[in-house]
Amino acid sequence: xxxxxxxxxxxxxxxxxxxxxxxxxxxxxxxxxxxxxxxxxxxxxxxxxxxxxxxxxxxxxxxxxxxxxxxxxxxxxxxxxxxxxxxxxxxxxxxxxxxxxxxxxxxxxxxxxxxxxxxxxxxxxxxxxxxxxxx
Length: 135
What we know:
The protein is mostly helical and about 140 residues long. It is about 45% helix and about 0% strand. The protein has four helices and no strands.
């Protein structure tokens, strides 16, 4: 006989370990999620954090296709995760994160990304310039 208290019931997310800072949605047609991490930024990287946070806020107005927007958002969040914390970030990790973000913005800056909003090309070029020479 089955014990109903121990049956598997997977009608939603199942966590088998501690989960912190997670954000998810299910059983819906469309979803827009935003998450703000107000953690401490490593000393000396405050301007970069401001630049990347502004980029994330303006990103939805760029008119990117969903995959391009998601890639850019992921790369920006990686930069923020790398510079978060009381200690200086590891240089190689930050260089890779910045390169990913510049790479995600490049198709917009060069006009290759289809469907971008008016002004998105200049916005992306300005963002790339701001991200260049950080290290």
